[in-house]
Specification:
The structure holds two protein chains of two kinds. Chain A is of the alpha+beta class. Chain A contains 25 helices and 28 strands. In chain B, strands 2-1-3-4-11-10-9-6-7 form a nine-stranded mixed β-sheet, with helices on both faces. In chain B, strands 5-8 form a two-stranded antiparallel sheet. Classes of the chains: A alpha+beta, B alpha/beta. The interface between A and B is medium-sized, with 29 and 30 residues.
Chain lengths: 746, 223
């Protein structure tokens, strides 16, 4: 067996202090297998050692929360079925950033696979996936071609996995910044549905119960994936390609059906997927949560290759595997189900009462570690922090547009705002026939056939805002998610978060993390969206350059099942309202907008200003308007401001609007500022809109009328924007494909 | 009328077909397991969409060897109704119950989108309820839906009015815009679009009901 030298310890990314702690937990020096086990369990990815003390600040409870953070996914109750039995949703977001850079297709595919297992390991059938993707600019002279290749690979991987598995990919968002060129972000959200009495937990209950391994055989792939995800990228990172796992969605589909069927036998006591850190993580977490121990013998683990060492078997991240604990005496019922689905299922050990994770190989003990300290007592770091990293100036440059309509076309053809249909038409977004609102809307909506309830989901992040001010930026994105939900008529009820940041050992990066979490805590309390779980992805840096601070929120809401209003204007001649009013704007707060980015090619100042109490009233008013059908469409204002929101409302049916404003703001600000708390809605019942706005104390400006094929905006009698909808739509619809294939013709 | 929905490992539209028949069409639907040979007295067998056996090798290439397919073939030979949707269509061509083959889409990418279809004939148990000239909006979701066959076969399909559905705007490069075809005896039909995904207003279209209503209308109880 290998000698444990300081170099070996360091190669496992374990600090000397952490090593001391391991020795004191074990009461002796670890062997190499044990060192490997500690290194993955105590990696940033598995232990949240840098973020945990701050994550405690987040609100996690409400009367609907059945399961908060700490399990495979969070669970919320959504209402009863016809027989009065309560139903629940399980949802969570996970990142697969590092693998997706090294091998985009498989990295993204296995990201989807991992989060799906988190959902069905709890007993829920996955019914929706969404993705938040961040790439480097597609037309960058140096990195553009690589960025294109990464995007095509990631999208292909998501499509491959989700389509074959049979879960609809119902939405998401894709944006671009130079800081993601060396470190793309791939965050995958999944949501499943099940009855409350069908929830399963990752707990190894019942001393003497058999521990069963099911699914794919274990191979040498993905060893040290979790520690890889906890380090920065360097030139050598590409040599880590063997660390990336290969996904098999067909196997996962069989695993899903077999697990749900096995759960229904009543013979399963607990179950957990093998994700990051594979067999190691599932055995120690399941026993730690239940206060038991687990003893396994590796000779029974199905293996794809010969000659694997205990170290390799314990650390493998081969995909599509689950660990479950059956009730003693009923294991044959479980094995029978897996046999029916043609899957490997082997009893590899038993639950013990001594609190130890004991790993044997042909009867000989190769690792023996107390479960709880391994799973739960990873070192916690209160990493020092200073002021958040930013180099952008506060001062606004002078700007004045000579062609405001041309600026709108610039936005339409930008990577961030152009149509993403080229991406989402590769995803089966309708399988299972629950999708009421698919990609391209403000929020995705799926119905739950059994309850008459629908679940709305919004995924959002804004690296630019968070870079300028992590605290305010994060509040803005919580607000935007909730506003998106209001626009489809849903009430926000819970959230999951993915915190994508750089190296937390740098105090100015740690400051971004702390500020973002505190902003999130404050906003989630106001909007009553407890965080029920999530993921932290740190060390998103390449060659010392960190990504923009990029918290991504996934917020879910509930509504009665019905056809959503949608964002598109439906008929010509309806009244167009700006709910929430023109809003506040000044030059400093223009610095994070799409106008600043795409037209002025600059970043400065601060993100838009948010008044959360006002925002909440606007949302309440909009929700009331949408659910009472007082409006025929609703769309929130965010990226690109008022002018861009009007353009987006126009594309669906090529029905635009004639808008007349009366504002003293400079036209660039009036059209393109991104002040929150605003929604565009069309209505054939204007009195009702005004009555509801008055009831909630928010302004509802009647700014114009919808008009077939034409979009114009005037202010104080002066024409600012005038265009045919078709021309603008053409630009918007074809931009992404044009950029992706530009390289081929160059 | 009783519909049997075959479940292969990797089928993922089996539940959608079952739901459409039992909830939206209002007839009986039952799942049939791939390794069984009992069709449970189904009047119409549906081979649903998905990725049967992972679609390794070629779409539908492994499913044709499954025990249930032997029973489906016998059912078809006896004049029983068989409908293959998406992967089910691929299985029917692989197993020789329908002519031609489905290859990768023209653009080499998976496409999910509602498309417009016209019925190529009303003279079939799958299309008789579709009004003349009516365009149907029904979604597609496939990566390998480009229908190809030898010219001789295509001519024959046209001459015998065996093109069940055509795309109005061909999304995948299918020859002669073919979206669905019938066998010679007109009791077996395969189509790439998913009629089960268009069976109620909340799905965005109810046009798929016309396919199921045609079946119900054509069905003559024999027992």
């Amino acid at each position: 067996m290998s000698q444990i030298t300081p170099e070996v310890v360091q190669a496992h990314q374990i600090t000397p202090d952490e090593y001391e702690r391991i020795v004191s937990i074990l009461g002796r020096e670890p062997n190499i297998t044990e060192l490997g086990i500690f290194s993955v369990m105590w990696s940033e990815h598995c232990s949240y050692k840098s973020s945990r003390v701050h994550l405690k600040k987040l609100p996690t409870r409400s009367k609907l929360v059945v399961q908060g953070p700490g399990e495979n996914a969070g669970i919320l109750e959504i209402g009863p079925d016809a027989e009065g039995r309560p139903w629940c949703i399980a949802f969570k977001i996970e990142s697969h950033n590092h693998p997706s850079f090294i091998e985009p297709f498989q990295g993204a595919a296995t990201g989807v696979g991992g989060i799906l297992r988190d959902i069905f390991t709890m007993g829920a059938r996955p019914l929706a996936v969404m993705d938040a993707l961040r790439f480097g600019p597609l037309d960058d002279p140096e990195t553009g071609l690589r960025n294109q290749r990464i995007l095509e690979g990631v999208v292909g991987g998501i499509a491959h996995y989700g389509n074959c598995f049979g879960v609809p990919t119902v939405g998401g968002e894709t944006t671009f910044e130079p800081s993601y060129a060396g470190n793309p972000l791939v965050n995958v959200f999944a949501l499943g549905v099940f009855r409350k009495d069908q929830i399963f937990y990752g707990k190894a209950h019942g001393v003497g119960n058999p521990v069963i391994y099911v699914g794919s055989k274990t191979g040498r792939d993905g060893i040290h994936g979790a520690t890889m995800a906890s380090g920065e990228f360097t030139e050598e990172s590409k040599q880590k390609r063997p660390n990336v796992q290969v996904g098999d969605p067909f196997m996962e589909k069989l695993l899903l059906e077999a697990c749900l069927e096995a759960m229904h036998t009543g013979a399963i006591a607990g179950i957990q997927d093998m994700g990051a850190a594979g067999l190691t993580c599932s055995t120690c977490e399941m026993s730690s949560r239940a206060g038991t121990g687990i003893e396994i013998d590796l000779q029974h683990v199905p293996q794809r290759e010969t000659g694997m060492t205990p170290y390799e078997i314990m650390l493998s991240e081969s995909q599509e595997r689950m660990l479950l604990v059956a009730h003693k005496g009923r294991e044959h019922e479980v094995l029978e189900v897996f046999k029916k689905w043609g899957l490997d299922a082997k009893i590899i050990g038993t639950v013990t009462g001594d609190g130890m994770m004991r790993v044997k190989d042909h009867g000989k003990v190769v690792a023996e570690i107390p479960s709880r300290p391994l799973a739960d007592e990873a070192p916690l770091y209160r990493r020092p922090y200073t002021k958040p990293l930013r180099t952008a100036p506060m001062e606004a440059p002078a700007f004045a547009s000579s062609d405001l309509t041309g600026d709108l076309f610039t936005l339409a053809s930008s990577e961030d705002l152009c149509s993403k249909e080229w991406i989402w038409r590769q995803y089966d977004y309708m399988v299972r026939t629950n999708t009421l609102e698919g990609p391209g809307g403000d929020a995705a909506v799926i119905r739950v056939k059994e309850t008459g309830t629908s679940v709305a989901m919004s995924l959002d992040g804004n690296g630019r805002y968070c870079y300028l001010d992590p605290r305010e930026g994060t509040k803005l994105l919580v607000a935007e998610c909730c506003r998106n939900l209001a626009c489809v008529g849903a009430e926000p009820v819970g959230a999951t978060n993915n915190l994508n940041f750089g190296n937390p050992e740098r105090p100015e990066i740690m400051a971004q993390i702390v500020e973002a979490i505190e902003g999130m805590a404050e906003a989630c309390a106001v909007f009553e969206t407890p965080i029920t779980g999530g993921n932290v992805s740190l060390y998103n840096e390449t060659l010392g350059e960190a990504v923009f601070p990029s918290p991504v929120m996934g917020i879910v809401g509930l509504m009665k099942t019905g056809a959503p209003a949608g964002i598109a204007f439906k008929e010509a001649g309806e009244d167009v309202f700006l709910i929430g009013g023109i809003g506040d704007a000044d030059n400093v707060r223009m610095g994070g907008t799409q106008y600043a980015k795409q037209v002025l090619k600059r970043i400065w100042g601060l993100p838009p200003k948010l008044d959360m109490e006002f925002e909440k009233r606007v949302q309440q008013a909009v929700r009331a308007m949408v659910s009472s059908r007082a409006v025929t469409s609703a769309h929130d204002l965010s990226d690109g401001g008022l002018a861009w929101a009007l353009a987006e409302c126009s594309f669906g049916k090529e029905i635009g609007a004639e808008v007349e404003l009366h504002s003293t703001l400079p036209p660039e600000l009036l059209l393109y500022h991104e002040g929150p708390s605003r929604v565009i809605a069309a209505s054939d019942q204007p009195e009702q809109v005004i009555a509801l706005a008055t009831q909630y104390g928010v302004p509802a400006l009647r700014i114009g009328r919808t008009r077939e094929g034409h979009l114009s905006i005037r202010n104080q009698g002066q024409t600012l924007i005038e265009t045919s909808v078709a021309a603008l739509k053409q630009q918007w619809a074809t931009a992404l494909e044009g950029k992706l294939h530009a390289g081929l013709h160059a | 009328m009783k519909f049997g929905v075959v479940v292969f490992p990797g089928s993922n539209c089996d539940h959608d077909a079952w739901y459409a028949v039992s909830h939206n069409v209002g007839h009986q639907a039952e799942f049939l397991w791939h390794s069984d040979t009992d069709l449970k007295q189904s009047d119409c067998v549906i081979l649903p969409g998905g990725f049967s056996y992972g679609d390794y090798l070629r779409c539908g290439a492994i499913a044709k060897f499954s025990p249930i397919l032997g029973a489906v073939k016998k059912h078809a030979q006896a004049g029983g109704l068989v409908m293959g949707i998406c992967n089910g269509f691929q299985i029917l061509t692989e197993s020789g119950l329908l002519p031609g083959a489905l290859v990768r889409n023209r653009g080499l990418k998976f496409i999910c989108a509602p498309v417009r279809l016209t019925a190529g004939t009303r003279n079939s148990p799958f299309t008789n309820a579709i009004p003349d000239g009516r365009q149907l909006t029904i979604p597609i979701a496939h990566g390998e839906g480009c229908y190809v066959a030898e010219q001789r076969v295509l001519d024959e399909l046209e001459a015998e009015e065996r093109i069940a559905f055509r795309y109005v705007d061909n999304p995948n490069g299918s020859l002669r815009d073919i979206a669905g075809v019938l066998n010679k005896e007109r009791n077996v039909m395969g189509m790439m679009p998913h009629p089960e995904r268009a069976t109620e207003p909340l799905m965005g279209s109810s046009d798929g009901l016309l396919v199921f209503e045609s079946l119900v209308r054509a069905f003559v109880p024999t027992k």
